[in-house]
Amino acid sequence: MEDLKNDRIRQAVRQRYSQVAESSDASCGCRGPEVLVASTGTCSRELGYSAEEISVIPQGADMGLGCGNPQVIAALKPGEVVLDLGSGGGFDCFLAARAVGDTGRVIGVDMTPAMVSKARAGAASGGYQNVEFRLGEIENLPVADATVDIILSNCVINLSPDKLRVFAEALRVLKPGGRLAISDIVAFADLPEEVRQDMALYVGCVAGASTVSEIEAVLEASGFTEIRVLPQGASEQFIRGWAPGTSVADYVVSATIQAVKPGAPFQPAPLR
Q1: Where are the domains of the chain?
Q2: What are 152's strand-pairing partners?
Q3: Residue 82 belongs to what H/E stretch?
């Protein structure tokens, strides 16, 4: 029964974000295109992206679907391998590609074919040689073991019905000393059962939110260390716009999530 429920959730999420990818209307965070917004650029500025960041990525990549800016906590360095969980139209991937440079590499994984197609088109139009997009689920990453320096994600992990599996997969693909830099929605109060059971609120990034303590426990159980989950109080304003007329902002908040895979990063031996 649990597997059937999880499959139903994944299908609903895939359907919702296929519609978003194929729509010409603006979205903003997890509210759908049916909610009128000024522009995706305005939304991204609310989430902490600069005007310069928004202006340099390929047209159509900024879909306004995040709940923060993981680039702020990522501290990306030239030459690093970056993985974006739930990469959507590729917005964070294209920004990361600029940070890691030609010697680095960025992989975006998304389970929605329309999103992967959109991101690949953006990479081609922008001439990005160090970015690739793969179709796959974040619970079963199409990425080899211990090949990634840093994992980004923006408002996606809350959509997964199996967060323990997500973080176990994240640990698997990270190199020793690799790190997480995630923006996501977390709960700071127990969600009412009617919210938990509302599929529209699940695909809207609310009903699947775990509490801070639950996220910390799952990260620890997965094997991560140096865990930091920091709620961002300023997110209340834009979260209220995701589900007008509801009290969702009384239960959830955007947060930054950081953690490290144990082990010393690989250091090549000095030349003699």
Answers
A1: 2-260
A2: 84, 181
A3: strand 81-85
Residue 116 scores a pLDDT above 60: yes
Element (H, E) at 131: strand 131-135
CA distance 73 to 45: 16
pLDDT at 35 over 50: no
Q: Are strands 174-187 and 148-154 parallel, antiparallel or unpaired?
A: parallel
Lowest mean pLDDT among 54-68, 139-153, 231-245: 231-245
In contact, 85 and 156? CB cutoff 8 Å = yes
Any idea which residue has 């994984």 for tokens? Answer: 109
Rounded CA Rg of the chain: 18
Q: Is 117 exposed, middle or buried (0-12, 13-18, 19+ CB in 10 A)?
A: middle
Can you tell me the distance from the alpha carbon of 250 to that of 247, in angstroms, rounded to the nearest whole number? 6
Pair of tokens at residue 71: 């680039």
Task: Supply the CATH classification number for the domain 2-260.
Answer: 3.40.50.150
Separation CA 134–CA 107 (nearest Å): 7
**Structure-model confidence comparison of residues 49 and 225, the more confident one:** 225
Q: Tokens standing for 12?
A: 């609903």
Task: Find the Cα–Cα–Cα–Cα dihedral 2, 86, 233, 212, rounded to 10°.
Answer: 40
Count CB atoms within 10 A of the CB of residue 220: 13
What is the arithmetic mean of pLDDT over 63-80? 93
Contact 92, 62 (CB under 8 A): no
Asked if 29 contacts 68 with a C-beta cutoff of 8 angstroms, the reply is: no
Task: Look at residue 255 and tell me whether its pLDDT is greater than 70.
Answer: yes
Q: What is the pTM of this model?
A: 0.91
